[in-house]
Each structure stands twice: as C-alpha cells, then as structure tokens.
Amino acid sequence: MEIRHLQYITEIVRYNSFTKAADALHITQPTISKMIKNLENELNIELFIRGGKQIKLTDAGKAIHNYAGPILQLFDNLQAEIDDLTYLKKGSIRIGLPPMAGSRFFPGVIKKFQDRYPGITLALVEDGARKVEESVAEGTLDVGVVLWPADPDIFDSFPLVEDRLKVILHPSHPFASREMIGLGELAEERFILFNTEFALHNRIIKECISTGFTPRIVYESSQWDFIGEMVAENLGIAMLPSRICAALHPDKVRSVPLVSPAIPWRLVMVWRREGYLSLATRQWISFTRENFNG
Fold it and tell me: Could you give the CA distance from residue 7 to residue 1 in angstroms, rounded to a whole number?
C-alpha cells in the first residue's frame, strides 16, 4: 500500500465516482480503477461494493478510509516542513560565541540574518573559546567562534576578526603613559586573566613562560567588562584585544600595545569536517562569511 492509494480512495469517496476522482487527480478513469484493483489483490480484500449508482465501501474499505485522512494530513505536514527547511523558512542553529566576540561583533550580523530568515531559530551559547571548540567537536554545537588556530583535521573554518592584545593598566601605573610595553617588563605584575574555559588564559600563560617568567594570577573572570572594572580599581593588570579596549572607559584604565612578543587575537568560525550540516547551518556559515569577509 502506498500514499497514492490512500489519496485515490479518499477522492473516490469524496466525489462518489471513479471518473470524477480520476479527473480531480489528473489521471484517467482506467488508471484509477486498475490501481484500486491492484491494491485489492495485494491485500486480498475488496474495498468497494461494485454495482449500483452509489459508491459504497466494504468494511475493509471503511477501515482504510478512516485512517486515510489523518495519514494524508500527516504526510502533507511532513511535505510542508520539508519545503520550509528547503527554502529556509524553518530550522534551528546552535551557535557558540565567546563573550567578547558575541557582544562586540555579532549583534548586527544576527539581526540581519533574522531579518532575512525569520523562521530560523538561533540558539546562542556564550562560553569561552576553548569550551566552544570542545562543544563543536563533540557535536553539541553546530558552529562556533574560537581562537585561531583550529585543528584542520577536525574543523573547517574561515577567519572573522584579526587583532592583537593590549595591556590594560590603572591610570596611576608607571607604564600607563608608555607607547608600548614588552611582555618581559610585566614579570612582577599582578595578572587578571580570563578563566580556564577561555583560550586566552593558556595563551597568555604560555607566552609569559616563553618570555622567562610565570605570571602571578590574582583574579580570573569570564567577563571582559568585569576584568576592565577590576583593573580600574587597581587590582592588577590585564590583556584584552585592541577592539575590546576601545570599549573601556579611558578615564578609568589605559591600554598600551603589547610587544616582544605581540600576542595575536584571531577569531575564526568553525564547524566539524565530518558529520551532517543542516541547510540552515550552511546558510549561516555562508551569511557570516559574506558579512565578515565581503
């Protein structure tokens, strides 16, 4: 039994005629009669009582007709949902965004995407880049923004933002008026870092050790603006990307370029190389690539 058999039976009952049902279905009367006969042979039952002017169902025919309506409705709903997905009227995307990336670079992009595809739901998860990378690799997120480099054996990616870290200091700090600061000059400072869920945590520690010292970490946070406020209270120094520093109050903190070495802050959009990507997710990837690199 096929869906079309249910459609044929429903239309025959609706029009009380094989001929009118065939016209409504845009097939010939011999074709619909043959299809019904083939179904009766397959099921080894009769569906219609032949003879007389009225079309009458047998008990078996009535049973099939009773189920045909709900089944056909579900089938129509399925086709409609597939069409919605095909034409990007519906769907959902799980996106991982580090707090700095989410707040500074994505509100406008998300607004434009939702204007174009209002039926697509964006489930945004704010977390550190390291945690986002793990979640995309595990498949609990569809796409995510992480720090470059991302493992090319696991991820496909494209670049979003390229920046460098600056040192954030209290205005009273001796280095506050400097044009640049070498990393080695910060060996005796009190460091305020992002917590261990953030890729910058390990990146900064690694660069300090390579320069010849282990940083003295006094506070950790998951929020860049809170880190800025702690520096404003002269609790220590911090390092933030240049574009984020521009959002800090210049009367409360100073930001000075870091050199020797400069520490890059490069954001990339990643998704798994292996595995299924929904049409909505593929469109998000294409849309963000266009907006950031167009």
Answer: 11
Is the CATH number 3.90.800.10 carried by domain 91-160+267-293? no
- Distance, CA of 269 to CA of 148 (rounded, Å): 9
Q: By C-alpha distance, which of 121, 152, 155 is closest to 138?
A: 155
Q: Which CATH architecture has domain 162-263?
A: 3-Layer(aba) Sandwich (3.40)
How confident is the model over 5-60, as pLDDT tens digits?
A: 999 899 988 888 888 889 988 899 899 999 989 888 988 999 988 776 778 889 99
- Please choose, from the candidates 113, 98, 104, the residue with its C-alpha nearest in 3D space to the C-alpha of residue 147: 98
Q: Give this prediction's pTM.
A: 0.68
Nearest to 93 by CA among 104, 85, 82, 102: 85
Using alpha carbons, list the distances in angstroms from residue 124 to 10, 102, 121, 221: 45, 9, 9, 20
CATH of domain 3-86: 1.10.10.10
pLDDT in tens, 221-245: 988 889 999 999 999 999 999 988 9
